[in-house]
Amino acid sequence: MSRRTSRPRRSTGTAAPAPRTMADAPCPCGLPATYAECCGRLHAGAAAATCEALMRSRYTAFVVQDAAYLLRTWHPDTRPPTVDFDPGLRWTGLEILAVTEGSPFHTTGTVTFRAHYTDDGRPDSLHERSRFVRHESHWVYATAVFVE
Ligand SMILES: [Zn+2]
Predict the structure, then answer these.
(1) For the whole model, what pTM was predicted?
(2) Ligand 1 mean position to 95 CA, how many Å?
(3) From start to end residue, where is composition biased (Basic residues) (predicted)?
């Protein structure tokens, strides 16, 4: 996923009480864990065991605007010089649709996903198959196989 994005989700006076910190909040990637237990571990330096884990952590990095994480998990051949976040975009959910290879025993893999967002309040989604490769023993994002 290479799309520009927005600032982190904020709860603004809705029914659910806001978590005190991002670490305690449900992970934006959708797994039933807190950010600190899930993608936050990877953002803090833990290695992603699978392509799917890396994909989830990169989605979450767009949500929390961790440009450094996005850049260090991008293959050097395709990595942009910087990542900019579009202030009008809010990422609202991730669906993993299919995974090929990408296990701890593979060197390549793909993840097909739909990432939901609002663009200036208008709901939309990004449907992409991303290709991941191992680079210096770590999974990195290589390129999009297709994007719709
Ligand atoms: Zn997560």
Answers:
(1) 0.86
(2) 12
(3) 1-10
